[in-house]
Amino acid sequence: MGVVEATKSSSGYAKPPWMFTGSALYQLHLVKAETARALIPKEFRLVEAFGYTLGGFFLAHYDDSPAGIFDELVVIAGIVWNPPTSCAWAARVLVNSHEACFHGRKSHFYVYLQYIGLPSQVAGFSKRTIAISERSRNKENSFLHKIGFGTAFHNPKDRIDVQVAEIKDSSTTTDFCCISLPTAVLNSRSDSTWMGPIVKMSLPSYSGHTEYNPHLLKYSCQIKCRVRAVTPAKVSGPTTTPLDKHGEELLAHQSFYSVGSEFGELTENDARNRSISVLLSKPVLALEFNFLKMQVEPPIVVAHCSKNIVED
Fold it and tell me: Any long-range contacts for 45-52 (C-beta under 8 Å, 24+ apart)?
């Protein structure tokens, strides 16, 4: 399933900030506010308009990181207020590296600040090409090339399927989603080697409030990369999940809430279904990040189980 072997320690993460290089697809979706709110701690106020917020996903391949080479899928539930700006909230993080998973979620009595407090889980990433025509490969440092496929395809209808499955233990896997990546970008074929302008950005994010880290944390990612718009990827959920055409769960006879939960109001199954709904919501923009250099700053504690950390 493409899972990196577990390591005995997280020594690669010993000294922040942590550096990652690779490539990624950052896709924004219109997510129903009611879906996003259930995945976001009630301490935060959701940024929304007309019943929707901006969520989506971040699909990355890192060719160098403190945990080595690995793939990552971050499900972004929505945007929350962080006056005077805003922050993204990650509802689920799937990685095919045990070390990256441990660092992403773990909390420790003395060194919890060295962990990001993300809802990380180990997953398998399998990739295959849906071939329609003969194709030639180029040597560009593009996202599709970095995950093992070239981008100079003759037929723009060719696609690459990335199947993601959660791994609960060595013998149990559960399908999560399939992301179908287009091989043709929005640019014309004559401009297929254009990788976009160099962009520098800072992406602030909240994390924590999980089973592994009860603190509410804030950290930032300093990113430098080349960015270009691409055709949005198509996402499908597991065939066993009852979903309607809009990606909303048909769970009329189920409760979304787990009474008495210390770390959240959703059961694990409900949180998983809501995360899939985010992925299946309507895409509005897809950006390919190439020559990605990402510096992750150590998190700071915003609050410890506070009920009023964000003012209206």
Answer: 45/80, 45/81, 45/310, 45/312, 46/78, 46/79, 46/80, 46/81, 47/78, 47/79, 47/80, 47/81, 47/86, 48/78
Number of structural domains (the chain) is 1
Q: Which residues contact 139 (CB under 8 A, 6 or more apart)?
A: 145
Average pLDDT over every residue of 78-96: 87
| Host domain of residue 289 | 11-304
Integer Cα distance of 27 and 250 in angstroms: 25
With a cut of 70, say whether residue 297 has pLDDT above it: yes
105-135 pLDDT, tens digit per residue, is 654 433 434 567 788 889 999 988 776 554 4
Domain of 284: which CATH number? 2.40.400.10
The whole-model pTM stands at 0.78
Q: Does a structural domain hold residue 234? A: yes
Domain presence at residue 310 = no
The answer to whether position 192 is within a domain reads yes
